[in-house]
Amino acid sequence: MLRPWKLGLSERIDASRGTPVYMQIIQALIRDIESGRLTSGTFLPSSRELATAVGVNRKTVVLAYEDLIAQGWLESAGTRGTMVSASLPEPARGTGTPTPPDQDGGVDYRFAEPPARPLALPGGTGHKLDEGAPDGRLFPAELLARAYRSSVQRASRENRLQYRDPRGSEALRESIAVMLKSQRGLPVTARNICITRGSQNGIFLATRVLIQPGDTVVVEALTYEPAVAAFHASGAKIVSVRLDEDGINIDDLERACRRHAVRAVFVTPHHQFPTTVALRPERRMRMLELARQFGFAIIEDDYDHEFHFESQPLLPMAGYAPGQVIYVGSLSKLLLPALRIGYIAAPEKVIDAIAHQVSLIDGMGNTLTEDAAAELIENGELRRHARKVRQVYARRRAAFARTVDAELGDLVDYTMPDGGLAFWLRFKRREDLDRVEESASAQGLRFASSRSFITSDDAERGLRIGFASLTEHEARQAIRMLRATAG
To answer: Which of 358, 360, 387 is nearest to 370 (CA)?
Structure first.
């Protein structure tokens, strides 16, 4: 004879679901207790009765009851049976209606600022034009697999498969320090390096140690939107300054410094994002003088230093003013974006502060991936791969320009980028850009909105279109689709 309690379990138990049946019974009983349908002291059916009513094996119910008794939800009353624990408090609402598991239970989930920006999710339908990603198909998978195997074996032999330094793999930090010192002129050692999960994570970590709510951060009128979002998330006040074909307007920057207590300036001086222009040496020197005069830090995002196709690339600002600059770089474009390997180079006290942030947010990075990357640097494979893909990307860059001229020459202007992996397309008529953006989705084409780069209402809109991740055939198809959106 079933106890006087309306079971309602049979319609909630489904053996075809991925969750084990005994766990479904546990979850259903807990929800009934929490909702008030089952109150303290209520006797449950015997395991045999409940198994018959639900249509499961008796051992399944016994297992669920034993688990609930061990957790304290139920208690055994000897020969009288099993009942809801008498020590449980009365539920806050005894409506008799179980609380659906997806409700928030009345918690007021507040955020410092509602997350307004959409998530940048991969996949989707149609053709995606990126903003300057590498072609992951060009990196030999076997090289990476061999480096992983070697890093696993070495870490096991040396007992390094434990928690470790939040600054990152010592081998990778040493390799990056040598690379930055010999190739980019940064006076650094491994103590000045912290490994991050890509350059975007590096920008976020730099923001965490620099910015307090109310601090002023200067950015260019067109810039990298995720960086601005990171500054906003830290409560920064954003001040936008103009830029032109020579980079950030230094006169505007000085005026901003005289009006505000500027804490940091964010720039991408090597290949300005999104316009691809390089910050001229005289402007770099003036910016550094302003940094010394007004006491602000420069966050230098050098996201694709390796890809330069004309002259020798300019040395990073961090190379001749390491005390004023937090330098953010990435290996993701040389290796694979999926590996998420970036780094920060900065004064040692800054790296220590960033390491504390890493210990709070991430605990530690990925030793095996980082050691594998270090091996690819040390054995020369990364350098050989860089030479190979530079040649491929140079050909794709030239072919992309020819296709843009042929298909979009009446719509857009552009300056051939000296380096980087993307073009900045400036539309001759704003209405053409509006039409392209409005009709792109219907044509099966996806790309970053021209408005996503803007921090000032009077900034020139344009499209940043990557060429490196596309073969010449794929690029022609994409540009022709872009042409079709203009009508």
So the answer is: 358
CB-side neighbour CA atoms (13 Å) of 126:
15
On the question of a cis peptide bond just before residue 4, with omega within 30 degrees of 0, the verdict is no
Two tokens, residue 329: 């770089």
In angstroms, the CA 357 to CA 238 distance is: 23
Q: Which domains does the chain have, with CATH numbers?
A: 1-110 (1.10.10.10), 127-133+384-485 (3.90.1150.10), 136-379 (3.40.640.10)
Backbone phi and psi for residue 244, each to the nearest 5 degrees, phi listed first: -140, -160
Query: Which residues are CB-neighbours of 363 under 8 A, at least 6 positions away?
Result: 163, 166
Per-position pLDDT tens, the chain of length 487: 445 455 666 567 777 777 788 888 888 888 888 878 888 888 999 999 888 888 889 999 999 999 999 888 999 988 889 999 988 877 654 444 444 444 445 566 565 555 555 555 555 566 889 999 999 899 888 888 998 898 888 888 887 777 778 999 999 999 999 999 988 889 999 999 999 998 999 999 999 999 999 999 999 999 999 999 999 999 999 999 999 999 999 999 999 999 999 999 999 999 999 999 999 999 999 999 999 999 999 999 998 888 888 777 788 999 988 899 999 999 888 888 888 899 999 999 999 999 999 998 887 678 888 989 999 998 888 889 999 999 999 999 999 999 999 999 999 999 999 989 999 999 999 999 999 999 998 888 889 999 999 999 899 999 999 999 999 999 999 999 999 998 7
